[in-house]
Amino acid sequence: MNPHSTLVAFRESSKSSPPAKCNMAKSxxxxxxxVNLWVKDVEEMRRFYVDVLGLTPIxxxxxxxxxxxxxxxxxxxxxxxxxxxxxxxxxxKPDIRRSTLNHVAFEIPLRSYxxxxxxxxxxxxxxxxxLHRAAHWRSIYFHDPDGNQVELVAFDKNLN
Length: 160
Hints:
By secondary structure, the chain is an alpha/beta fold. The chain has 2 domains: 32-87, 2,3-Dihydroxybiphenyl 1,2-Dioxygenase, domain 1, CATH 3.10.180; 99-160, 2,3-Dihydroxybiphenyl 1,2-Dioxygenase, domain 1, CATH 3.10.180. Helices cover 22% and strands 33% of the residues. It has helices at residues 3-16, 42-52, 113-122, and strands spanning 34-39, 56-60, 64-73, 76-84, 104-107, 128-132, 137-143, 149-155. The chain has a 4-stranded mixed beta sheet, with helices on one face. A 4-stranded mixed beta sheet has the order 5-8-7-6, with helices on one face. Strand 7 and strand 8 (149-155) form a beta hairpin. The longest helix has 14 residues, at 3-16. Mean pLDDT is 81; it is low at 1-11 and 13-17.
């Protein structure tokens, strides 16, 4: 199932019926702290995420690299972390032949949408555009060197 159609269905259903009451306090979540990816080739992925997408390295070791996406809250930036799947010194490693990850999306301003699309194409990245009219999103989809689907998404209030 397309995650965007799921979101749209959720939004539509929440318009027609009020949320269920519960005794839980409002969540303190204020943003996405990090996304961690086990990768086949850390250096190749580093080049892609730094040179093509423009993320900033903030910490590197022999087994991982942390890349800043944006400022977060109270000092914790939003991060994509790339971990070397060949490293043997970890207790839990996922099976990189399969994953439940559908894609990672990075929010961009609408004014940068066309520029980002041209920049990716110039870097040799094959892009696929989709309009998600019900959610008012313009999306550029592509794959990183490990085959993970990545999305650049811009909110467009005029998209119907």
